[in-house]
């Protein structure tokens, strides 16, 4: 609260500075006003057929005054730029500025790691999309064997969806790291970001979901923080104050998926990503130009997509 008050004071001081500069630019000093007055009074006078030359001194004074005014405008403009820059920086550093930046980031369409033309469409992707579209409460756990294609399937199901915040869990203090990655200071601001994201999603009726999504990717090497993931998913997947968050956990290994517990099977939805089918394997190998050798690949690697990817890359 104290920091927010200081930011407001700095902002008001910057605005006062700008107003003072602008007043200095447009209110002429006394000598300029006097020169203008003399210029209006002293006019050329005709005497018979001759003309009395106009006194050029007021005009010269006016030119000097004009130069002064130009410099005042330049100085005022420079001050305005500096003051505006300071005000913008102060706002970005404030809690409100951080929240707005995080909301704007979350509202961008989700972009998967792999290009769409390198991904085969699998039925499990449709299953994940239906779960997202119809979601009301409880966490979603995407499980399966190691390198069975869970991450790709989850990301492809979310392609183009707005309101997604993705984070890879690597340690027990993942919650603090997630807030820093999003650009906010603490969990309270994070929840405020997600609340505003939900409000923003009302402007996109064609979005797959009207709820914000927290996508947590858990590598198989992660052994800490599982309990916190479970409790977090349980806490935020409610709609008591209109701030429910759909937590999707993409577990790299089956062991991690089985260790997740958001309150029993009744409080979580498990989606299993199996190995490729024969038809999916043929389609995948066709993308890499090996459609005529699919049997050789299957004999050597089986139907696990991770092994097939490595085999294609090594050829």
Automatic annotation (TrEMBL):
| Swiss-Prot/TrEMBL keywords | Signal
Where is the signal peptide, in residue numbers?
1-25
Q: Which domain of life is it from?
A: Eukaryota
**The protein's name:** Uncharacterized protein
């Amino acid at each position: 609260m104290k920091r927010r008050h200081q930011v407001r004071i700095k902002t008001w001081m910057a605005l006062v500075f700008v107003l003072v500069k602008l007043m200095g630019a447009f209110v002429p000093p006394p000598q300029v006003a006097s020169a203008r007055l003399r210029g209006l009074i002293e006019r050329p006078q005709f005497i018979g057929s001759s003309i009395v030359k106009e006194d050029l001194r007021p005009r010269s004074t006016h030119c000097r005054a004009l130069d002064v005014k130009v410099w005042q405008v330049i100085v005022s403009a420079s001050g305005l730029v500096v003051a505006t820059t300071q005000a913008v920086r102060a706002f970005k550093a404030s809690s409100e500025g951080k929240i707005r930046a995080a909301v704007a980031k979350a509202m961008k369409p989700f972009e998967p790691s792999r290009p769409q033309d390198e991904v085969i469409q699998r039925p499990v992707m449709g299953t994940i999309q239906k779960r997202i579209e119809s979601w009301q409460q409880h966490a979603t756990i995407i499980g399966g064997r190691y390198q069975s294609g869970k991450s790709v399937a989850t990301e492809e199901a979310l392609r183009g969806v707005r309101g997604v915040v993705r984070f890879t869990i690597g340690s027990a203090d993942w919650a603090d790291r997630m807030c820093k990655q999003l650009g906010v200071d603490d969990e309270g601001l994070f929840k405020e970001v997600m609340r505003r994201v939900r409000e923003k999603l009302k402007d996109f009726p064609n979005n797959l979901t009207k709820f914000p999504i927290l996508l947590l990717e858990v590598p198989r090497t992660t052994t800490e923080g599982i309990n916190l993931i479970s409790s977090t998913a349980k806490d935020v997947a409610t709609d008591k104050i209109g701030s429910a968050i759909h937590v999707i956990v993409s577990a790299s290994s089956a062991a991690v998926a089985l260790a997740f517990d958001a309150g029993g099977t009744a409080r979580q939805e498990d989606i299993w990503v199996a190995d490729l089918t024969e038809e999916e394997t043929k389609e995948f190998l066709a993308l890499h130009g090996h459609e005529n050798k699919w049997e050789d690949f299957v004999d050597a690697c089986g139907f696990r997509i991770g092994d097939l990817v490595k085999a294609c890359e090594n050829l």
